[in-house]
Structure formats: C-alpha cells, structure tokens
Write a structure and sequence with these properties.
The chain is of the alpha/beta class. The protein has a single domain, classed as Rossmann fold. It contains seven helices and five strands. The protein has a five-stranded parallel β-sheet with strand order 2-3-1-4-5. The radius of gyration is 15 Å and the shape is globular. The protein binds adenosine-5'-triphosphate, (3R,4S,5R)-3,4,5-trihydroxycyclohex-1-ENE-1-carboxylic acid and magnesium ion. (3R,4S,5R)-3,4,5-trihydroxycyclohex-1-ENE-1-carboxylic acid binds next to loops. It catalyses: shikimate + ATP = 3-phosphoshikimate + ADP + H(+). Monomer. Its EC number is 2.7.1.71. Belongs to the shikimate kinase family. This is Shikimate kinase.
Length: about 170
C-alpha cells in the first residue's frame, strides 16, 4: 500500500527502475513531470520554464506533489529537482518510502550524451560545461537526496531492490 518515491538526478534511472518496480509489486507507476504537463494543459517542461520561469515551475511541481496521498500504492518517479524545493522532501517522507538512486555525475553525463532527450531546461546536451553543471547540481542536491530512507546505486536490479524493500513495505 505504501507509496515508493524514487528521487535522484536526471538520467539516474528513476523511470526505468520505477516502471520495473511497479510491475514487480503490482503498483501503479506515475511520473511527476508528466503530472505537471497534464496540469499545465499539455505544455512541455521546456515551454513552462521558458514562458513562466523556474519559480513558477517549482510552485506547480510542489502543488502536484501534494496531491499524492499516502498509501496510494504508487511508484513515483519524481522530477530531478523536486526534493530540493519548498517542503517537498519533508512531504515525500510523510507520503511514502523514499529511495535515492545514486549515480555519479560522470555516469549521468554519459547517459545524457548517449540518449536523445532534449526537454531539459537545466541540462543542455550541447553545453561544453555540462559535466561541471552536473557536478555542481549533484553536490548541491545531495543534502536533500540523502534524506531518503534508502540510498542505492543506479545499477541496482529490481529483484535486489525488492528484496531490500521487504523490510519496509
Ligand atoms: N541501470 C542503468 N544502467 C545503464 N543505463 C541506464 C540504467 N537505468 C537507466 N538507464 C538509461 O539512462 C537513461 C535515463 O534513464 P531514465 O529515463 O530511467 O532516468 P530518469 O531518472 O527517469 O531521467 P529523467 O529525469 O530524465 O526522467 C535512459 O536512456 C536509460 O535507458
Ligand atoms: O533536475 C531538474 O531540476 C529537473 C528535472 C526534470 O525532471 C524536470 O522536473 C525539470 O526539467 C527540472
Ligand atoms: Mg524519467
């Protein structure tokens, strides 16, 4: 019944592992960025940032998070920055079990360059200082991410994670 929140940097594998975990536990999977896009009438994350700015995005993001009720049997892939704004991490901790997918900036860079994904207002694949940016954000955000109940390496297999979760669910 308890929700499971996956937190971590963009490209850390929240969607990939989250979908697998949801299937494994027979939970529903939701992605908060998708909930935001729906809340905003289908506008992309890039469009929201461009037109209304990051503070507006963070307001909507927090509002959307607070609509998630505890014990909804959901696996939730959170936005990369979500835990680091407003009271979001505190809310996440009251609304379910939280898991930080810890992936190094170097690995994140490799994944970002390997895979096509252009809807990232804060991380531009063409930016020559992308690695620096990833290191900076990773270091700034660890304070919030590490408040999660569990910290696991990004490569953790779903079977291994499920075993660890037995103690919590
Ligand atoms: N364990 C893994 N090992 C190697 N590559 C992975 C792993 N998990 C995910 N990936 C790859 O990394 C990329 C990012 O993964 P994914 O989309 O799941 O991350 P995310 O945290 O949901 O990112 P975003 O913040 O963009 O939603 C994908 O192309 C995926 O195939
Ligand atoms: O890392 C971030 O701050 C973000 C990550 C994405 O999931 C989106 O929520 C948005 O692009 C911001
Ligand atoms: Mg994702």
């Amino acid at each position: 019944m308890k929700n499971i929140f996956l937190v971590g940097m963009p490209s850390s594998g929240k969607s990939t592992l989250g979908k697998r975990l949801a299937r494994h536990l027979a939970y529903r999977f939701v992605d908060t960025d998708k909930l935001i896009i729906r809340e905003e009438g289908g506008r992309s994350i890039n469009a929201i940032f461009k037109t209304d700015g990051e503070p507006y995005f963070r307001e909507v993001e927090s509002r959307v998070l607070h609509t998630i009720q505890p014990n909804s049997q959901l696996v939730i892939a959170t936005g990369g920055g979500m835990p680091c704004f407003h009271d979001n991490m505190a809310y996440i901790k009251t609304a379910g079990l939280s898991i930080f997918l810890d992936v190094s900036p170097e690995q994140l860079l490799e994944r970002m360059l390997r895979h096509n994904q252009n809807d990232r207002p804060l991380f531009n694949r063409q930016d020559p200082t992308l690695l620096e940016n990833l290191r900076q954000k990773y270091n700034d955000r660890r304070f919030f991410y590490t408040q999660a109940d569990l910290i696991i390496p990004g490569e953790t297999a779903v079977e291994e994670l499920s075993k660890q979760l037995e103690a919590y669910l």
